[in-house]
Amino acid sequence: MKRLIFLLLIVFCACKDSGELDIQPYPYLVISKFTINSPENVTVDARFIQLGTDPILRHGFVWHWTQQTPHLNELNNDGFFEMDSPPTDTNISQEISHQFLQNQVYFFRYYTMSATDTTYSGSASVIPNP
Predict the structure, then answer these.
(1) pLDDT tens-digit series, residues 3-44
(2) Considering the entire predicted model, what is its pTM?
(3) I want to staple 100 with a disulfide (CB 3.0 to 4.6 A). Which of 46, 84, 92, 128 is the partner?
(4) How far apart (Å, rounded) are the C-alpha atoms in residues 43 and 4?
């Protein structure tokens, strides 16, 4: 009987109203699309699902052609682009110029940095120079 009460208590405490969003200090974001403008130029669109509560100090994109989850602190990053000002909207669009290798898959991630943490989107891939 004690086990049943304990199990019901755990289930009851774990449940939340499905309409309630649990706001985290860090943002949650996704890359939504790529537009290939030329073999050396691609536009990357990202959007915030949640902006978080911590102020974003720096943000931008990082990419690599062999690492599926590139990070800013990796010495072998193929490239990164830091945006000039903090995000003011939930939608981000940035044109990136780079000498992309021909017929090579590139993995992009959007990043944000706060005073306490760096957050990345999931990786999204594109062949910018087919």
Answers:
(1) 433 333 333 344 444 455 567 788 888 999 999 999 899 999
(2) 0.75
(3) 128
(4) 55
Residue pLDDT, tens place only, 57-110 = 999 999 988 888 888 877 566 788 888 887 888 898 999 999 888 899 999 999
Backbone angles phi, psi at 60, to 5 degrees: 170, -155
Residues 6 or more apart whose CB falls under 8 angstroms from that of 79 comprise 62, 63, 64, 96, 98
Entry field: residues in the chain: 130
Look at strands 118-120 and 124-126 and give their pairing.
Answer: unpaired
| Contact (CB, 8 A) for 34 and 126 | yes
